[in-house]
Amino acid sequence: MSDKPLLLRPPQRFANALKRHGVEYLFGQSNPPALTMAADDLGIRQIGYRQENSGTYMADGYARATGKVPVVTAQNGPAATLLVPGLAECLSASTPIIALVQDVGPSTQDRNAFQELDQLELFKGVSKWIRRVTTADRIEDYVDMAFTAAASGRPGPAVLLVSMELLAEREERPVATRKAHLGRYPMDRSQPEQAQIALAAELLANANAPIVYAGGGVIGSGAQEELRELQEIAHLPVATSTMGKGAVDETHPLSMGVIGYFMATRGMAKFVKPMVTDADVVLLIGNRTNQNGTDSWKLLPREATYIHIDIDSMEIGRNYEALRLNGDAKLTLSALNSAMAAQDLSKRQSARDAIVSTIATARLRHKEEIAGVAQSEAAPIRPERFMAELEKQLAEDHIVVADASFSSIWIANFLTAKFNRRFITPRGQAGLGWGFPLAMGAKIGNPDKPVFCIVGDGGFGHVWSELETACRHGIKVVVAVMNNGVLGYQKHAEDAGLGRHTNVCDFTPVDHAAIAEACGVRGIRLERAQDIAATIREALAADTTVLIDILADPNAMPPVTAFASLPNY
Predict the structure, then answer these.
(1) HSE-up of residue 564 (Cα within 13 Å, Cβ side)
(2) What is the number of domains present in the chain?
(3) Where is the Thiamine pyrophosphate enzyme central domain (predicted)?
(4) Domain with 246 in it: what CATH number?
(5) Model confidence pLDDT, tens digit, residues 455-510
(6) Is the pLDDT of residue 2 over 80?
């Protein structure tokens, strides 16, 4: 490879820097145009979203499903503001993403230039790092810094504001060859001091009733193998958060399932709740101990001893004082496994049979409790009935994506994490509308893997237009819309908390299958439970995006603790 400097204009410099870091796609809408064209010349393909917020959701899904740092682009002003929700999710969910945003130039700044906005202030609350790029000689520096900021430590968004005047420069200048490749995460893994790890191993080995509570940080770090090894060698029961689903195989005899604020009747982990509340040592891994994951901080026992593994020092001890293991989950768990091997694990071994029996009984009781809804032939269709059939037909390597709200709770409770299945949910901020674009991004990054997406009609209404994007780019995703005609979570939460609900919780009937067909993809209307199996088979076998429009029961509620008191629960 020649180290002779290239002569490049600013747009080409940006494109070359992105290419060096392994960027394959720009999630954009042609802005900034000179940069987009320069990237296209190098084989970086543009995925043209219909709206900027969907572009960030696609990039988010791509990052989570590939371990690569994606780039989303946007025009300045109103377009830039639409990046904010997606970046907020990435910040909370620890997803690396680079937003490359057009900006007014220095000579027109503070002069009411077209679509001028203080974009530094706009993005401060939703990014780890933000800089303006106004001079050609600093382009490579800032691009490298953006990738480093996004992928290192706790991953998250980095924003580059690119001057239009800079991109309009025509002068070609020599650019020295760089070789750094910074496009994957986690970057610069670290682990705690050995003494802290040894203390954690001692606590776990000698505990009376320990549990592990794994969060999304296990997935982000790629630490599933290390966690599964710990589960087996130390005989530890493992629960996960919604974002941590898939960290362990839920068919393993020591897997408790997903815990949090949905452990009421029909919740998969309802009958293992005493194992959580009676725990004396709790190992938290990549877990924010947020409100939903702890049922408003009431689920986890205050008197327990906590050990907390996290890459972000600020998360350790935020809600539960803990032995601090500040470091990457994969490296730290590997070191912890070695430390556990040096411990006397006879106490853990002797407790295993009783734990396995407790979990097996809990699973059986859960299966019995959901039988009525999982086998229901009623119309409108119960979501649990659809999930039961979907569970039978999912492939070993399926990527399952859901929107926030009820959708993510349905998959958390009624689909099983096993084999190499991956589950992706937008639970950082838990906004509506993420599901379908998130699934599209996951498919773009994994074209050879099947992707299935569950959304509600409320959330899907935010992003109908991206059906055309899927058609145009040939992105094959199966999306199932729970069309119950209501903003379900909002309606039931208002009923539970206030005794009534507002007038905007109910929708006019919408034919989502017709919308899909109008956008050039396949739409199937599903009205009868007896047609579920055949419909799923047809959708999975199709060679295009398929939307299944499920006429779902508006009174069906997932096992949210706060809803248990409602009369129709």
Answers:
(1) 12
(2) 3
(3) 198-336
(4) 3.40.50.1220
(5) 999 999 999 999 999 999 999 999 999 999 988 888 888 888 888 999 888 999 99
(6) no
Say which residues have a Cβ less than 8 Å from residue 508's Cβ, sequence separation at least 6. none
**Sequence-ordered alpha helix ranges (H) in 346-414:** 346-374, 383-393, 406-414
* Residue 268 and residue 147 share a domain: no
Q: Are residues 531 and 383 in the same domain?
A: yes
Strand 238-240's sheet: what is its strand order?
Answer: 255-258, 238-240, 210-214, 281-285, 305-310, 322-326
* Nearest to 223, CA basis, from 234, 233, 211, 215: 215
Cα 76 to Cα 86: distance, rounded to the nearest angstrom:
16
Contact 460, 403 (CB under 8 A): yes
Query: Do 433 and 53 touch, CB atoms closer than 8 A?
Result: yes
Rounded to whole angstroms, the Cα distance separating 422 from 425 reads 10
* CATH code at position 420: 3.40.50.970
∠ CA 132-135-136, nearest 5°, is: 120
Find the domain containing 57 and state its range: 6-175
The enclosing H or E element of 274 equals helix 273-277
Residue range 253-271: average pLDDT? Answer: 97
Average pLDDT, the chain: 96
**Is the residue at 183 inside a domain?**
no
192 class by beta-carbon count within 10 Å (0-12 exposed, 13-18 middle, 19+ buried): buried
pLDDT (tens digit, 9 = 90+) per residue, 339-379? 999 999 999 999 999 999 999 999 999 999 999 999 999 99
Per residue, what are the HEC states of 528-569?
Answer: CHHHHHHHHHHHHHCCCCEEEEEEECCCCCCCCHHHCCCCCC
The residue with tokens 């780890």 is 128
Assess whether 56 and 167 both reside in one domain. yes
Task: Let me know whether 410 and 515 are in one domain.
Answer: yes
Token pair listed for 491: 């309606």
Whether 316 is in a domain gets the answer yes
CA–CA gap between residue 314 and residue 300 (Å, rounded): 19
Look at residue 368 and tell me if it is in a domain: no
pLDDT digits 0-9 by tens, 404-455: 999 999 999 999 999 889 999 999 998 999 999 999 999 999 999 999 999 9
Q: Which H or E run includes 282?
A: strand 281-285
Residues 34 and 214: their CA atoms lie apart, in Å, by: 44
Pairwise CA distance, residues 103 & 553, whole Å: 47
Q: What is the pLDDT of residues 294-319, one digit of tens each?
A: 999 999 999 999 999 999 999 999 99
| pLDDT for the residue numbered 243 | 97
- pLDDT band of residue 5 (cuts 50, 70, 90) is confident
Q: How far, in whole angstroms, is CA 375 from its chain's centroid? A: 30
R_g of the chain, CA atoms, integer Å:
24
Contacts of range 299-302, beta carbons closer than 8 Å, 24 or more positions apart? 299/259, 299/260, 299/261, 299/263, 299/273, 300/213, 300/276, 301/276, 301/277
